[in-house]
């Protein structure tokens, strides 16, 4: 396989995974949930949350094909449904409203003070929510070769590493960016995600269109 198409696929996969993880938006939730913990504990929590999220995303990226067959689903259907789901999340990011894929302020208040918030709600659903799981499954489904699948896994790994670095240094980053800076970055990621979501739908329609034409003839 040529190197350039492989790099292009990795860049597209990385962009899709990174924007849906939204580490800068997640950092504000992380700070709220770990407000009572010292910096050293926060770093350990960030590491555990990212490790759990990494395991979840890798699992769904590798098992997506088996799930398709078990439930009788097609990749085209997942692309269309996933694109619609991602677009609703992107709209929430663009307008500064968190969707159901994230936690509500009430849920955060409920978890503040609990000993371990790394699995729920940080790993699930803040990092590896429905949008992230759908994204990696679609990307893995589009990976027609082992090398492309490896690029998807690499994109997940790099995105999670960046998430850890952002969460572990969330106090410093948020002090630098301020609330306005985080909102701007979240809106930019929402814009990128909306484009990716529309492309997912276009790809899904293109995949299923020949079958629909045959049925109509």
Report on the architecture of this protein.
The chain is mainly alpha-helical and 217 residues long. The chain has one domain (3-216): Growth Hormone, Chain: A (Up-down Bundle). Helices cover 84% and strands 0% of the residues. It has helices at residues 3-21, 23-33, 39-71, 75-94, 105-111, 118-127, 130-142, 146-168, 170-216. Helix 1 runs parallel beside helix 8, helix 4 crosses helix 7 and helix 7 runs antiparallel to helix 8. It is globular.
CATH architecture descriptor text = Up-down Bundle
What is the C-alpha radius of gyration, as a whole number of Å? 18 Å
Note the run of SSEs as H and E.
HHHHHHHHH
Query: What fraction strand?
Result: under 5%
Quickly name the level 1 CATH class: Mainly Alpha
Helical run tally = 9
Measured as a percent range, the helix fraction is over 70%
Tally of individual domains: 1
What is the multimeric organization of the chains shown?
single chain
**C-alpha termini separation:** 37 Å
What is the total tally of β strands?
0
**Uncertain stretches of 5 or more adjacent residues:** none
CATH domain topology: Growth Hormone, Chain: A
| Content-based structural category | mainly alpha
What's the overall geometry? globular
């Amino acid at each position: 396989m040529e190197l350039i198409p492989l790099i292009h696929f990795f860049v597209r996969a990385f962009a899709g995974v990174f924007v849906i993880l939204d580490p800068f938006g997640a950092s504000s939730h992380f700070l709220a949930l770990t407000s009572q913990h010292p910096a050293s504990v926060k770093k350990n929590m960030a590491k555990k949350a990212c490790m759990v999220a990494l395991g979840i995303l890798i699992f769904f990226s590798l098992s997506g094909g088996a799930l398709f067959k078990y439930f009788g689903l097609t990749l085209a259907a997942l692309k269309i449904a996933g694109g619609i789901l991602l677009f609703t999340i992107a709209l929430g990011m663009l307008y500064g409203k968190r969707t159901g894929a994230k936690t509500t302020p009430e849920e955060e208040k409920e978890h503040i003070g609990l000993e371990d918030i790394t699995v729920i709600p940080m790993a699930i659903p803040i990092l590896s929510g429905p949008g992230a799981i759908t994204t990696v499954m679609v990307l893995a489904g589009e990976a027609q070769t082992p090398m492309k699948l490896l690029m998807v896994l690499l994109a997940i790994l790099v995105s999670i590493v960046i998430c850890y670095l952002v969460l572990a240094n969330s106090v410093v980053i948020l002090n630098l960016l301020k609330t306005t800076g985080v909102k701007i970055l979240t809106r930019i990621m929402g814009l990128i995600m909306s484009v990716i979501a529309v492309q997912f739908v276009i790809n899904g329609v293109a995949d299923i269109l020949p079958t629909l034409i045959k049925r109509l003839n």
